Amino acid sequence: MAALATIALAAAPCVAALCGADLLAGVPLTPAQMPTDRPVHIVQIGDSHTAGDAITSALREALQARLGNGGRGLMPPGRPHAGVRLRGVSITQSGGWSARGLFGSGAAEPWPPRGITGYTLTSSSPGASLSLTADASFTAFGVCVATSADGPHLQLTLGTDTQELAFVGDGPECRRIVPAVATDSARLELISGDAIVTAWWVERPTGVVVSNLGVPGSQLQFLGRADDATIAAQFRALPPDLIILAFGTNEGFAPFFDATRLESQIREQVARIRRLAGTVPILLIGPPDAASRNTELRRNAPWEATDCNSAIQRTPGRLPVEGLDIPLWIDEGGSLAPDPVQFSGPVPRAVRRGLPLFNPPALAAASAVQRRLAGELGVAFWDWRARQGGACAAVRWMQSGLMGPDFIHYSPTGGAEVARMLLADLDAARTAGGH
Question: What is the C-alpha to C-alpha distance for residues 141 and 332, in angstroms, rounded to an integer?
Fold first, then answer.
């Protein structure tokens, strides 16, 4: 009987905020674990939460303050979309380039190849250029290009040194170039041929690199559009020590949620990453809490939609701020005010109540699928939504200035708080495990 109880206990699913922490024990997060001949590389792949870099930049800054600045890491080349956020670098791009991502117009077309950065820039215009200036100097610069028999031929300027690079071959190639002296600038210019640039990066000899590789609007399924050979070349160029998959928000806001389909996608992409990157620890991050007024999302999964109106903070100092449409709560009687209402602040104004706020049920459903599969596949899982405060926490975070008025995206302060919670959980698990 005791043996059966032990087996049942061992098989019980993890219900903690961080599950499978032991699988992350080998990730160097302490000075004693740091390699001395290369930087530690953490890669986060995801949607707009990752692309916006509010969370990953805070994680990057915290780890680099602790363990040293290893550089900015892998980035999509140039400025492939208007909303690209690459903290720590300034990037300019001339005319003559076309961008293609894993999500959006033409995303399903297999050419040009895209890798783990989610974007590719192409040009056949001699003189087309991409420039980068980093906040801190770097000792190595890298670029990933699709080669061909005719090139392309690129001119690379690192600081004051200029050289020509010929990418002649058949397939993807990532090349790492070490300048004579450390510099903070790099410039690529097309000399001839067709340039198909899939990534670039900057690094330093030691420390931590956190690469944020996100595509706004993306779901995990769209990662399947990336080219295997290009992904493999990018992972070889800057090998990861930890790969974070941060999806679920767009799945949670889809009109219809298919749990079976998401399970298949998770299994497929985890197996694919292991095949292309090797035995690297993987951390699944569940979707955060978010709220909506779109009534079409109330039944996008066979779960109950949670009413978030009662989560509205009723303290006068936490009432709506300029430009934000949020219901106004009446303390007396505990009910929503009529529409419109007058709010007495610095400038009295009308605030429209709008439609009721709620949690799309697919958010919780997506998180549940990720949690269950993490245990089956031998990867770690972090319940972002639970750590944020659970259902309807997005309303409180928004009213506290940590999230935007869409109840989905984060302010820099909010991103820093998410990164702080994640790192605290990783540190606590490491301490508890004696690592």
Answer: 62
Compute the distance between CA of residue 222 and CA of residue 233 in angstroms, rounded to an integer. 19
Instruction: Return phi, psi of residue 88, to 5°.
Output: 100, -10
- How many Cβ atoms are within 10 Å of 224's Cβ, its own excluded? 12
User: What pLDDT is recorded for position 280?
Assistant: 95
Give the C-alpha separation, 144 to 112, whole Å: 13
Q: Measuring CA to CA, how many Å separate 387 from each of 157, 285, 425? A: 45, 11, 10
**3-class DSSP state for residue 283?**
strand
Distance of CA 224 to the CA centre of its chain: 16
C-alpha torsion 419→424→429→434, nearest 10: 130
User: Using CA atoms, how far apart are residues 180 and 182, in angstroms rounded to an integer?
Assistant: 7
Are β-strands 380-382 and 208-214 bridged in parallel, bridged antiparallel, or unpaired? unpaired
> How far, in Å, CA of 324 to CA of 347, rounded?
15
**Mean pLDDT, the chain, integer:** 87
Rounded to an integer, the average pLDDT of 241-261 is 96
**Whether the predicted model's global pTM rises above the 0.85 cut:** yes
Strands 282-285 and 380-382: parallel
Which residues are CB-neighbours of 332 under 8 A, at least 6 positions away?
none
Query: Taking the chain, what is the end-to-end CA distance rounded to the nearest angstrom?
Result: 33
Q: 253 phi and psi, to 5 degrees? A: -105, 10
Burial class of 105 by CB neighbour count within 10 A (0 to 12, 13 to 18, 19+): exposed
Structure tokens at 110: 């297999």
Local structure of 214: helix, strand or coil: strand
The pLDDT value recorded for residue 403 is 86
Residue-by-residue DSSP string for 397-433: HHHTTSB-TTSSSB-HHHHHHHHHHHHHHHHHHHHHT
Domain positions in the chain: 322-355
Evaluate whether 173 touches 232 at the Cβ level (below 8 Å): no
**In terms of pLDDT, which residue wins out, 8 or 284?**
284
Q: Is 193 left (phi over 0), alpha (psi -120 to 50) or beta?
A: left
Burial 52-74 (b: 16+ CB within 10 A, else e): bbbbbbbbbbbbbeebbbbbbbb
Backbone φ, ψ for residue 421 (5° rounding): -65, -45
Cα separation, 214 vs 195, whole angstroms: 23
